[in-house]
Amino acid sequence: MPVNRKTPFKNFFRKNFRRLEGFIFYLKSFLSPRQFIYLACFLVGVSSALAVIVLKTFAHWVYVFAQYMDSILHLPYSNSTLPIIGIVLTAFVVKKALDGFIEKGTSQIMYAVAKKSGIMPKKQMYAQIITSSLTVGMGGSAGLESPITITGAAFGSNFAQNYRLSYKDRTLLLACGVAAGIAAAFNAPIAGVLFAIEVVLMDVSITAFIPIMISSATGAIVSAILLKDEILFTFSKQLNFDYHNLPFYILLGVVSGFVSINYARTFRNIEHHFEKSRLKPIRKALYGAFILAILIFFFPTLFGEGYESIKMLANTNPQQILENTVLQNFKDNIWILLLFVGATMFIKVYATSITIGSGGNGGNFAPSLFVGSYLGFVVATFFNQVGFKLPVINFTMVGMAGILSGLFHAPLTAIFLIAEITSGYSLMVPLMVVSSISFAISKRYEPYSFDIKNLAAKGDVFTDDRDRNILSGITPYNLIQTNIQTLKLSNSLEELIQKLSNYNQSVFPVVNDKNELIGMVNFEEIRPYLFNNYKVKFTPLQDIMRPPKEQVNYDETADSIMDKFDRSQEDFLPVLKNNQVIGLLSKTAILEAYRVRLKNMIIE
């Protein structure tokens, strides 16, 4: 009989994990709730940081391997081949091991907070790591930060579920995982805190800052200890701000806003193209991967996250970005360099959307920094060629904040992220100027962050409107009164009086033989008829029936329904499904659900 050598290791791991789990339960029994939350924040921070280290290290060594192969072949053949392998493998893993589906993008974190009480599936603790490492690690033109934040959020959510914590603590730990992930990825703890609050939570009390800061600081420390400097995206050069350059920073902010809008709309269009495609997953992956391979062949800096190319632009010899390209013989021509960088900046969104849409997994955080740095480089270099003296590295750095702010609608995260990765705050003024202008322009034409626009339109995620945030977590379908009495035109007032006497119902839908709504009868409006025997006997129901002022679809969102209650000034509205009446919805029921949810959302 063959011996299963994996079983002892598996049993050893499972046994020790249960011991650790039991020890944490033991600690919970004598720690106060707040003390246990602090411990949980630390553990979630460590877990998220370790996930970051695995992803970043794998992606870095694949990049090093690809560059080594290029130095042998002298053309970016390996750069073009590896992404095809990575995307196809990702599609295969999703199909065979993840039930054929994996949720992508940070929008699912907001959806979990708004609609699922902060509950995220257990598989997200490993699914994002596996799929994104295959896609981005093998050269797919996307970022690892979105999978990192989802993984961190899943760690926090499932830790809270495992130790039976409340909704508010579960949501808090979810945000802690997100903060730790961003902090570990960039060694930027402040940016991690701000991203969790600015993008994920929206509504948060001041007391939530401490747990989030603990997780963020933990993630940054673990990352700084275990990750090498060449893997971390950091800059050590001292950058200074010259107020004479302020008009150019304002211009950069304006351009960043419009570039962000173009990026968001182009990404959505290409994503929808792949969603509508009838190709099977593997064929779709091959179709997209081959297009991506062609793009990477001509624009090798589209390979992977692209952080190495940003570092090239920010050094004193940006011409090296043209090495191993078809334009390498023209690398001393500044206008060729400028044209190449500008073209790559606009093509990046196509590469990223194809990577993700065709079946790969990744995010848009790194691509936004990529596009921003290229934009800043193009603006500064162009004006330098026409006679000005602008610091190219400053504009390269500040441009990243502009696109990040415009794309994710997170200006504070953008400001402090760039400030932290540049190891100083000398550029704080231009960072504030560029980020705020880009955010304002993007917000004007794109009210929602592009990552959550589709969900926001459905009322499924948080917005900056607190009332709508709370209403978004209410499911009206559960509040519908389905056991109701209806009327038909053939009914008399005497029959209506009998229903009023026998049922606790003051509003009656009037329906036809197909149960379709044709009117409403309200007890308060017909009271004068009911105390006059003559009118009761001779008034047809049609005379006292009135058309419904508003009607509700069974799958409508709570905030949309509340708008209808406000417009109609009604206390009850009929609910329809497939044009048939299925019940009544009370305004009082929604307000009570609002009150309960508001109470649960208060983070103590």
Notable features of this structure?
Chloride channel protein; chloride channel activity; Cl-channel_core; 604 residues; transmembrane helix; 25 helices; CBS-domain; two-stranded antiparallel ribbon; Clc chloride channel; 3 domains; single chain; 3-stranded mixed beta sheet
Brief overview:
With 604 residues, the protein is mainly α.
Task: Describe the fold and architecture.
The protein is mainly alpha-helical and 604 residues long. It has three domains: 215 residues, Clc chloride channel (Orthogonal Bundle), CATH 1.10.3080; 225 residues, Clc chloride channel (Orthogonal Bundle); 131 residues, CBS-domain, CATH 3.10.580. The chain is built from 25 helices and five strands. It has a three-stranded mixed sheet with strand order 3-4-5. Helix 2 packs parallel to helix 7 and helix 12 packs parallel to helix 14. The termini are far apart.
Number-wise, the strands total: 5
Shape: elongated
Number of helices: 25
Number of domains: 3
Largest sheet: 3 strands, mixed
- Uncertain regions spanning at least 5 consecutive residues: none
CATH topology of the largest domain: Clc chloride channel
What is the second-level CATH architecture of the largest domain? Orthogonal Bundle
Helical content class: 55-70%
What's the name of the CATH homologous superfamily of the largest domain?
Answer: Clc chloride channel
Structural class: mainly alpha
Using only CA atoms, what is the Rg? 29 Å
Distance, first to last CA: 58 Å
Q: Could you give the order of the helices and strands?
A: HHHHHHHHHHHHHHHHHHHHEEHHHEHEEH
Question: Percent of residues in beta strands?
Answer: under 5%
Mean pLDDT: 84
Which strand order does the major sheet show? 3-4-5
Which CATH class of the largest domain? Mainly Alpha
